[in-house]
Write a structure and sequence with these properties.
The chain has 18 helices and 22 strands. By secondary structure, it is an alpha+beta fold. It is globular.
């Protein structure tokens, strides 16, 4: 029997290895930028075509490579960062495994031009699909100029599974932000399809954050600074009152490298305990400087997960540091009794009159067991009971506070409130009941046969959350928020299918500043948003102006709709072309529907019910939650056994 184990050819092995290093265009951008940083560059430009699918060009002014190094850098495990195994525990550079260029060149067409400062001519190398094509001397500037063309052209299965251009660009922007936030002393520039997305000059850290995420963040962050024997911590954390309901501005860095660390994220969230609104996440940009020997950065292929030697101590240090910053900059709410507008509470000695204890008069002859003093309680006696539900609105002003109510000598026959309502007639007079309902008192309609003969359907709104009405088999209960979601969703879908959404023009257009990633999402959705009734115009500096919204959306902040729409696409990572209608409709529905705890008028309830049952499948929301349920008569009877 012949042997069955053999070595793979280098071309196949490199393609397998490329699957770990090169997952998408953003992986190529990340690896090449890190190489440029390690080469000492202070000016790095990234040029993309079709979000990196067609072209990725990285140009830097680093120290460049010699002719020999230029050829060797494409070999597997070729690196200048480490020489022995012990060096893995003292990593101070970005790329160090020596796999990036070898993997990239095996799945794309790569061209490199590089020159050292002391050399008159540089070197040009062309590699296609891992096969060496050409090497020659050429004239070029100092540094490196990498061109990566037609990524995954020789691996069709991998190229087929790349996402839409907008999705791939978002991934590139994410990696670009992580790197540029680490090195504010380096100038970065990012261009896609001849459109400049970022142009970040050399600046301090705070200004770099503002240049990336917008000027609105300047007033939302405070300094964090702490130095201990374990780690030095610095950076910024956000104002809890301005926290967002989404992830996106949460960053950890250690020794100049971005990392993900759920345990340390929990430390920060604990520091914000009882300060954050529900489901909100603060922004933070936290930088750790630690001894490389106490961390392990090679536990994950993308090197974004890092293991610390003493994570529990770091947890406590970070928690205390963030708490201190929130208190130092008056982020934690406090009471200032020295303010001019504070309440003036007079001292006890400021009163001129003499204060004496109130006198209490007791009827010593009162006997609760005498017959004329007792009256059995009758729960079905509605005479006095209904008078406590709602007073006559016309006589409401006749309630008065007796001037002697707070006199020291309290007379038992005096009452603070003197009612002049004829209790015996209340509830029997329809005019009185009508006026009672006008002051927000709920008049519960009985479901009897006489009311069923009328044309008006009777509804009860329970806790401003559910709507209850009588049906033949029992009681029907409707969730008013979910019902509104269903109606809005179906209206938006209909508008998109008919390409004639109605726009309600805004009297005062709203301008919203976004970061580059969110701005790119809105651009990709622009035509579809206009179809359903949005009037949005993109401006410069990642800014949009909203001149109108769909007529179905009422009394909802436009900014919140846009933010939740963007977050929905970030969370689902869906292909915009295939599920655009459903995703947009669902996102807008979630952010614009009438919530619970809202009192509805009879007209609003009738319209809600009519519109709900005009929808297809009125029993369930677009995301599958139940809207309507029936409580059967048999179930009601069983509860009252």
């Amino acid at each position: 029997m012949s042997d069955i184990i053999h070595l793979l050819p280098d071309s196949v092995a490199n393609q397998i290895k490329a699957g770990e290093v090169v997952q998408r265009p953003s992986s190529v951008v990340k690896e090449l930028i890190e190489n440029s940083i390690d080469a000492g560059a202070d000016n790095i430009s990234i040029v993309l075509k079709d979000s990196g699918k067609t072209l990725i060009q990285i140009v830097d002014n680093g120290k460049g490579m010699s002719e020999t190094d230029a050829r060797m850098c494409f070999e597997p495990h070729a690196t200048s960062k480490i020489a022995k195994a012990s060096d893995l525990f003292a990593i101070n550079t970005m790329g160090f495994r020596g796999e990036a260029l070898s993997s990239i060149s095996s799945v794309a067409e790569v061209e490199l031009k590089t020159r050292k400062e002391e050399s008159e001519l540089g070197t040009q190398i062309i590699i296609r699909g891992g096969e060496f094509i050409k090497q020659e001397r050429t004239s070029c500037s100092v540094g490196c100029n990498f061109l990566v063309k037609n990524l995954f052209y020789n691996v069709p299965a991998r190229r087929k599974f790349l996402k839409a251009d907008s999705t791939e660009l978002r991934n590139i922007i994410t990696d670009f932000q992580r790197i540029s936030l680490t090195y504010p002393e380096i100038k970065f520039r990012l261009i896609n399809n001849d459109t400049e997305i970022f142009n970040l000059p050399v600046s301090n850290l705070r200004q770099r954050i503002i240049n990336i995420f917008g000027k609105q963040l300047n007033s939302k962050i405070v300094n964090v600074d702490c130095e201990t024997s374990i780690a030095k911590i610095h950076g910024f954390t956000g104002d809890p009152q301005k926290a967002k309901r989404k992830y996106g501005e949460q960053f950890f860095f250690v020794n100049g490298r971005f990392m993900k660390h759920p345990y340390l994220h929990k430390s920060i969230m604990n520091a914000y305990d009882k300060l954050l609104p529900t489901d909100s996440i603060p922004s933070y940009f936290i930088y750790f400087e630690v001894d490389p020997k106490i961390i392990d950065i090679n536990i994950h292929p993308t090197k974004t997960e890092i293991k610390f030697e003493d994570e529990q101590a770091l947890f406590q240090i970070l928690n205390a540091t963030v708490r201190e910053s929130l208190g130092k900059f008056n982020i934690i709410p406090s009471i200032d009794f020295d303010e001019d507008n504070s309440i003036d509470i007079p001292s006890l000695g400021s009163r001129e009159e003499e204060i004496s204890a109130p006198k209490i008069r007791v009827n010593s002859n009162y006997n609760p067991f005498e017959e004329n003093n007792t009256k059995p309680y009758n729960p079905f006696d509605t005479g006095d009971y209904q008078s406590t539900i709602a007073p006559d609105i016309e006589n409401f002003e006749n309630y008065k506070i007796e001037e002697a109510a707070f006199e020291p000598d309290i007379q038992p026959e005096k009452r603070i409130f003197q009612s002049k309502v004829n209790n015996s007639n209340f509830g029997k007079n329809p005019e009185v009941s009508k006026r009672a309902s006008s002051i927000n008192q709920t008049r519960i309609s009985s479901f009897n046969n006489e009311e069923k003969k009328t044309d008006t359907k009777q509804y009860i709104q329970l806790k401003n959350r559910y709507i209850i009405t009588q049906v033949k088999s029992g009681l029907m209960m409707i969730d008013q928020k979910r019902a509104h979601e269903k109606i809005i969703y179906e209206n938006i879908i209909t508008s998109m299918e008919n390409h004639k959404g109605t726009t309600q023009q805004s009297l005062f257009p709203e301008t919203i500043e976004l970061d580059a990633k969110d701005f790119n999402i809105i651009l990709s959705l622009l035509e579809d948003l206009r179809t359903i009734g949005f009037n949005i115009e993109p401006l410069e500096n990642n800014t949009i102006t909203i001149n109108g919204t769909p007529s179905e959306i009422e009394n909802c902040p436009t900014k919140r709709i846009i933010e939740e729409l963007i977050q929905h696409f970030k969370d689902t990572q869906s292909d915009i072309k295939t599920v655009i209608k459903e995703d947009i409709a669902l996102s807008i529905t979630k952010s614009s529907t009438t919530g619970h705890n809202k009192t509805l008028t009879t007209t609003e309830i009738n319209n809600l019910i009519d519109n709900l049952f005009a929808c297809p499948s009125p029993n369930y929301t677009p995301d599958g939650k139940q809207i309507v349920t029936i409580i059967e008569m048999n179930d009601i009877k069983s509860l009252l056994k």
